[in-house]
Amino acid sequence: MSNQSVIPPWEELLEKSKNKTNVKWEIRAGQTPSNVAISSYFNCHSYEGKPQVLLYRDTNAWCPFCERVWLALEEKQIPFEVELIDLRNKPKWYTDLVPTGLVPAVKIDGELVYESKSILLSLEENFTKHGLLPEDKQEKEIALEMIEACEKGNFSRAGYQFLLGKPLNSTIEDLSEKELIAELQENFETQLNQLEKALEKYPSDYFMRDFGLVDIMYIPSIERLAANLPTFRGYHLLGNEKYPLLNRWLKAMNKRPNYQRIKSDARTHNLVMKNVFKLEPLSQELQVMEDEQENNSQQDRLEAAAKLSDNHENVVQDILKNSGIKSWITDENLEQVEEYINLYMRFLANQLLQNYPIPLADEQLMKNNEIAVIGAVSLSYIRNRVCVPRDLTAGAASQFKEAIDKILKCLYSSAF
Ligand SMILES: N[C@@H](CCC(=O)N[C@@H](CS)C(=O)NCC(=O)O)C(=O)O
């Protein structure tokens, strides 16, 4: 094939992108997910021996409680290993180990700690560097009270009751659906007002004088509600003028590189709600308002290019197996189709790397209908499949989708 001149081989794509990206991951051949993020501590420090911390978290990285611990570990620059637990099929050794059977759990120097709040406090105790609690005694007391209040769950309970449109524990009888939603909205707004008041206390963007555990406790539920409420309830937290300090806080959180690295995106949160929790979106358009990504598009593109290059074998097999392509090809042309999928993935990795205004590929790839249809299906499939931050960080995923859209646009205008 003559495309070699236009699209570099995988080795070159990987070399060009991997060395320049700040994100590190581990490839897990034959497993799901096929790549997993590793402690960013390893990016900047050489480390010998076993890290002191082992984090048990959910396979998909959807768990809000795991997100707390993951963020704290990154903010405190603690090197850690990760063991993924499949929540739909929890291994017996895990339920034997952890009394609640829930994630997250950690081992710190071999000692088990579980429950996200206890883990956060235990990390503070064991790793004093990059402290996440105020040094001042009185302020520390206030922070601990706020952590307790968050742990009690009144805020997230009110948010999820409003999102789901039903009280979780009690029943409010004799109300029409409209009245019930109005009541649940009022409950939630009472909680939001309390957060707004709490954010007023210190002259900073955060709950306390500096970023810390209180912010870490709250961010996973607020991140999810900010994504889900517009889509499933038509209610916006982002940009809501009633909550300027909460919006300022979210902006400040989004500026933190460690948070950018571990957060999910609105699209993934909405897909989880729709597909796993079977919530009906208000419109076909799932994503109503995307939260802010810190603009670091070159780094994000490099991450996406590098992960795709490193993981291309798994990606190609995933497309072949799950995109539907297999149902309309024969055994005789399987190898050829696999080669084309591979080529389109290289085309995508190269586009991410080069950021061409008009994606550059061999004529055959763009203009031959039979070949282009393989590209269109493959690209559309992985565009919709990407799960944040399981497969890519939020910023990298948005660059990934942007590059795919550019290629698809060219494919449709030249081939079909
Ligand atoms: N209070 C716990 C809650 C942890 C939790 O509910 N984890 C969920 C995942 S989001 C879980 O492990 N679910 C599995 C199950 O219920 O069996 C904490 O803060 O760590």
Ligands, deduplicated: glutathione
CATH architecture of the largest domain: Orthogonal Bundle
The share of residues in helices is 55-70%
Number of domains: 3
Instruction: Give, in order, the helices and strands.
Output: HEEHEHEHEEHHHHHHHHHHHHHH
Fourth-level CATH superfamily of the largest domain: Phycocyanins
CATH class of the largest domain: Mainly Alpha
Beta-strand percentage?
A: 5-15%
Q: What characteristic shape results from the CA principal axes?
A: globular
Number of strands: 6
For this structure, the CATH topology of the largest domain is: Globin-like
| Largest beta-sheet characterization | 4 strands, mixed
Low-confidence spans: pLDDT under 50, at least 5 residues? none
Spatially, the strands of the biggest sheet line up as 4-3-5-6
